[in-house]
Amino acid sequence: GECVRGVCLCRGDWVGPLCEHNLLQETQYLPFDEPATWPGRCEQGQWWLEGERAVQRHISRLNAPSRCTNHQVAVFSTRMHGLGAQLHYLTECLTTSVHMGKGMLVGGNHSRPIPCNRSSLLGAHELARELVACYIEPVNSCPTASLGEHSDDDGGEEEGGLDWSAPVQPLGNMSRYTGDDFQLLPKGSAFWWRAQVARILLRPRPVLETTLQLVKAALNFQGPVIAVHVRHGDACMHASISQFRPQCVEWPAYLERIYQMRDRYGVRKVFLATDDPDVAEAAAQVPDLEIMQLALDRSMFNADWFLEFRSELGLVDSQLVTESALLDLLLLSEGSYFVGTFASHLSRLAYELMVARLGYFAPYASVDYPWCFHMMHKGDVPGFGMVNC
């Protein structure tokens, strides 16, 4: 770390009052002092805010081009992912576009318009486009009305338009980027950068934001909350056939970590996001915690087949799957403490958004991986070897 006016500003992915905790090595961070009231928080928060503003200004400038052409805007290909991985994939695209000095747009099947209603949403390969069309504010100011209208016989760029015929892939090493260019002091934090771009990407459209506020009011979601994400469903099937995915961890292990946080920080209110109906039922019976969760029929998640495949084939309600996952993610991000599985994109994304909102590292506990960032390439995860995170 670096001492500034008596406060440690931590280098790399080290956190804590004395920069003693390594995010990439340790599965939990439970400081004895409450981070929200730690005396050095203001100095760390000021450094965080200055870098955040610099990132926002730069990305806003790149995504308000004078002309919507391929010289100023990069069009990225879409991929088959679930919600958490899809949003993390978009952070890779946005990071690549920053390095290219261009704005970012998402390609895909632009011959298909996306009306935002239950009968037409597909998820899967189309999820990235559906998110931008229906749920989150677009990053780029270029109009989407021309998507799919390109018709040059040679596939080239029309005057004043974009060529959508050859979308690019994000660069494989973008996961390692640490945002040094946007911080007055060189901190080199992969987490800090990922948290910034995730927050820029995930800005709810008015309808989603209104729904979120109504759900919060119905749940009485206020005050300090322990946000808990239990990912089972098709993730357990994936683990059973994988050489490297960790096995699903049962509910009692999560509950043990919740009690640790309750005893240390005096918090009894919990928001639970889970795809497992048995976990939801067991949590509702816990007597000494106030556990909130969405009223949702979770039986749709019970299958030995990836949810995104079932969504694309119309075997589940894609709109319900997407909207419930988005609400879970946004509610998790509004907690003050986190318990989850960092082997899951949604867990990592929720914690990244939480920290970006708070401006400091909230206490957390992961039942498997430490925090990791390399979805586009294999990297070492302590205790699990070389994996795609």
What are the defining features of this structure?
389 residues, alpha/beta, six-stranded mixed sheet, two-stranded antiparallel sheet, 11 helices, 14 strands, 12% strand, globular
Task: Describe the protein's topology.
Layout (H helix, E strand, L loop, with lengths): L1 E3 L2 E3 L4 E2 L5 E2 L5 E2 L11 H22 L10 E4 L6 H18 L2 E4 L20 H9 L54 H12 L4 H14 L6 E5 L3 H8 L9 H15 L3 E6 L2 H8 L5 E3 L14 H6 L5 H16 L3 E4 L4 H14 L5 E3 L12 E3 L3 E3 L2
Parallel strand pairs: 6-7, 8-9, 8-11, 9-10, 11-12
Antiparallel strand pairs: 1-2, 3-4, 5-12, 13-14
Helix pairs in contact: 2-4, 2-11, 4-11, 5-10, 10-11
Query: What's the number of helices?
Result: 11
Question: Percentage of helical residues?
Answer: 25-40%
Stretches with pLDDT under 50, minimum 5 residues: 145-160
Mean pLDDT: 84
Question: What is the N-to-C succession of helices and strands?
Answer: EEEEEHEHEHHHEHHEHEHHEHEEE
User: How does the major sheet shape up?
Assistant: 6 strands, mixed
Distance between termini?
26 Å
Can you count the beta strands?
A: 14
Class from secondary-structure proportions? alpha/beta
What is the strand content? 5-15%
Question: Looking at the structure, what is the overall shape?
Answer: globular
Strand order of the largest sheet: 5-12-11-8-9-10
Assembly category: single chain
